[in-house]
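The step that takes the researchers longest sounds almost clerical: writing a folded protein down as plain text. Below is the pair of lines this work produces for a single protein:

——
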Amino acid sequence: MSSPEFSLDVSMSDPNIFTTAEPKLPTVTKRSPPLPSPSPGLSPPDHTTSSLIGIDRSLAHLDATSHGIRMQISAEERSDKGTADAYSRRVRDYVMWWDQYQHECSEQEECWTVVPAFPVTATKAALFVNHERTREKVRRQLNPQCPKLTEECCKRKPGSTETIPGSNVGKSVIQQVISALEDWRVSHHHLYKDVPEAQIRLRDDNRIRTLESAAKHNEPKRADTAQTLKASGASYGNVVHEHHVQLQTSLSCSTDAYTTEELVRCSWWSLTQPSGARQVFIGLRDRTMVLLGATTALRGESLRMLQLSDLFVSSAFLDSISSGRAPALQQVLTALADNAKTNQHGRVDEHGTLRHRLVELCPVGSLAMLLYAYFHVISQPVPDFAPQFGVPGFGEFGYRPWYELFVFWADDPKKQMSYDSEISQPHGSARGRYLTFHRQITTTV
């Protein structure tokens, strides 16, 4: 019996087990010539370090270029909205207040080092938001010496200190201030990578959340105070714009919306003052925007997005004001809205309006006059209502060119009216003159 340490477990199924292996030849290595020694007093070049420096520069350039593209796209998306102007105004207010605040700190503390307003951080934003939360509302007034009723006439001038006693801003202003500063931080945080606090979202900071929550909590109390101020007529200045007697409007009103008499005067002015085919059409268009927006509760952005294909007539039962009479079936002019500012999820909303007993304030009649002027005053061509089934991508119902026509437009019926076109009409147009008064008394400062 063989011992276990010398046992051999060989599988005879392998046919090559007893073949003779080919002898291996010795490996011959070829020596490379020695590298030349560097010259005395000179160090060898460090190609690795220079390459890394070049890569860092290239990556920094690519990073700046990509952020530039992002900022350009963001600016294009806001070009037809009021968000860009509102945010820039809040940031300007922040810079002005911060500079003044730092000046006061330097006067109180001899060794104070002035801290710049940028980059925006949670610490700086919390101080500014607290200032906004506790300040009084600034009174806005028209400039009586201005010969033109434009947006610049009623804009609050920088550094204005005339306020409404006992008032304060609402939670929507606080939320907009935080959003504006956060928008600036997000847009410019790549320029301050060495500042850790500039990389943190403002609303992730408990100070910002506490201030925003406090503004929401105090909103009912603020609303009660605002109603008292409106009832007493203390919310607005007593300024009569003598250069605009055609409007016959005084800013000594104690409400934040048009009265029926004021709206009637605006409506008549837009009907009687414009001259020339183009100006008549603009006057009718602006009148319809005001009346339709007032009766359907559509925002300005939603009105600019409204197309002819979004309008239809439906019916609704309305209760009679006389007792004992059955509800009457009334026709309702309805507008569809699926992409408004308050609806970002594609929900289809229906906004309806009825004929008004006063012909000057009837949105249905105003729209009819606008469409008449479209075809018979400025002589726009009648669109083709027949569907075109040969156009790809439009399904079984085909392509209908008239679906692209907007109700309110500036230069091209197929192009959506921009925000600037809505509020910055030529001084001879109706909207450029009386919409500013409307914005003057309804815009929250």
